[in-house]
Amino acid sequence: MKRSYIDYAMSVIVGRALPDVRDGLKPVHRRILYAMNELAMHHNKPFKKSARIVGEVLGKFHPHGDSAVYDTLVRMAQDFSLRYPLINGQGNWGSIDGDNAAAMRYTEARLSKIAGEMLQDIDKETVNFQDNFDGSLKEPTVLPSKLPNLLVNGTSGIAVGMATNMPPHNLNEVADAIIACIDNPEISVPEIMKYVRAPDFPTGGIVYTSGITESYSYGRGRVIIRSKTRIEEHKGRQKIIITEVPYTVNKSMMIEQIADLVRDKRVLGISDIRDESDRDGIRVVIEIKKDNDPDVVLNQLFKHTRMQITFGVNMLALVNNEPKTLNIKKLVESHISHRQDVIRRRTQFDLTKAEKKAHILEGLIIALKNIDSVVILIKKSKSVEEARLSLTEKYTLSVEQANAILEMRLSRLTSLETEKIQQDHKETLQLISELKAILASEKKILEMIKTELAELKEQYGNARRTEIVEGGEGIEIDIEDLIEEGTMVVTITHSGYIKRLPIDTYKQQRRGGKGVIGTGTKEEDFVETIFVANTHSYILFFTDHGQVYWLKVYQIPEAGRQAKGKAIVNLLELSENEKISTFIPVPKFEDHLYLVLATKNGTIKKTELKAYSNPRKGGIRAINLDDNDLLVSAKLTNGKQNLILASKNGNAVHFNEKDVRAAGRTSMGVRGMKLKQGDEVVDMVVADEALTLLTVTENGYGKRTKISDYSVIRRGGQGVINIQCNERNGSVVAVKAVADKDDLMIISKNGIIIRTLAGDISVIGRNTQGVRLMRLETDDIVMSAARIINEESDEELEHAIEENPEVAAKGFVSSDSSGIRLKEEPEDDIEENPEETNSEENKEEGEE
User: 789: pLDDT confidence band, cut at 50, 70 and 90?
Assistant: First the structure.
């Protein structure tokens, strides 16, 4: 099996997928060009049907599928695939939009003029030939290739275990580099790069110099290519005009990709896209929405679409049938070496031919000098064989010379013809002398190569198509560096829809009216959170599985006041069965801030906020959980705040977060609350004595209690009774820190929702049963409760923004349980509770 696979792999590597370093061709390309040359389908001859060419190649040299041969023929004819096409095509040969060429029975082809330079002198024994697949014909193992095809046209191919991807280059630059290498064999790669600065792609575009030095020095690297664009203005609206696209990019698919991103609101600021391309060139028009920066939109397109690609350079080719990765100098030297061999063999062929001709001419001259006796000798001979023998013996001639004399026409006996023979002999001797001089001098061979290259430049050289731009280091920066900073209002609904609005939307509202909520939602949905943040601020989303995901504010789709926004789950790469449990807006990852996480099984963990400052697209681990544990809450604190953990069976523990030592991001944390069997933590709240603790049970009962009624104890205890969980109340389903003016939504399993004002719920003692909050059907239970944003809160936000625009612009405006707040700096004035008691007392109180 191993031996068979290696044989197969080598067959693919040598006989199919990789180009020969000498002519830059794979076998199928070489066979097509050779077959067309044998059919005399030169650039100045009539076109022939492609089907005729494919049949010739299949029948004589390439016993594979006809589609493989025709596809190769098509690519060699496309001016957007090859920098210097080797085939002249007539008919439909496909387009840069990915349109296929017409069937081979419709298209016609012939060799291009530059392809003739690849085949020149092939009939002068300049290259080796081998048997074709059935041994009936001979085919070349390589073409003479006066054109440095591998460098100017490039190639790509995938073999077994290896691949090649060579970029095309400009012929003028390559020729100059080869000439420079001939003049200075010790030339370095940086010196060659003075001539060949960068690839020159047939589709143009812009190439950045970063990565080119590495690619040319080591044969491997990455080159960044961008579309060529300009910005036009028409009737006050700005447009991005794309005139050139990166190499290998399908234009129509690129436009579809842009449209999809605009539809998904991942690229913002585009109102329309049109393809106005025609036979004169590419023109894709992208219209920009009013008041949007076209440069920002353009950079978003470069970031998210194939308007910018990375071309992976891998200069792998066959050297003596062995795959090798070559740098730019080795490629240049390989071409020089190949041409030296071709010129040497061509010169030897011409020399042998000239020597044979001189030898014959010498025999004819001897015969002409003795023409009378020669004629008599021939007339006396009884046969041609006798005449040949007599001539060789009497005049010391070779058999070839005697044959030439016998075959000579009588017209050549005239004095004029005699002079021509003598002149021809003289010129032939001169040619022999010159050919021998070439073979004897390596310098003359190199000069001939230089002359050939100068001729190629003159006939086929043209200007660069791809513009070179210095730099490129860090060009694949995060799009945030290209997004202009601004302040946004972000709203999140209870069922997980999110959107952002420019802060101007609120600044422009006239105060004193009823106001609007700023989102259109489903009947059963409502806005649960609203906050102001900078476009570059983060929102951390924590899942019940202990993962944390990031979104930049600018990545949130912008929508109008009446739009509901987009589902958060569609913006994050969540795993299966993973649900968002909480989220936290973070303006900056500051040193003195902490994230406190609480789990269902009573574990609590505090970690410095900056530990979460390195985002990863697929999220990172926020806390390690046991198999039967889930993350229920996360809070942003300043390291000195009090927290309350509340359990399903009606207990609550109130402690200072200083009791929780800071741990690493992936640690499991410590015990925050001791739970009895069957109990679990429902939620965690930041304890602010200006608020009350709302507790809601599954049977529709609940109450509010002053935060001060909960003694501050150490973490890890069972805590105290928060509410009596008896048969009437059932288990606790929600715990919130609320103010009197907060609006609350209570939601049941059957979809019943009631809205109530927090101030209407009685503030009563800690160890009580509470009052009825919601009347339920027999088979219904309460599932959750949440604080909502009402019109008054909406107006408060407008007022806060108007009164403190500088603070608002920093992104420190939030709408939480204590209402709309402006925070110049994080709060750090929480004092330790002097009434803290020891854990034994706490335990007894909890059991009581």
Answer: low
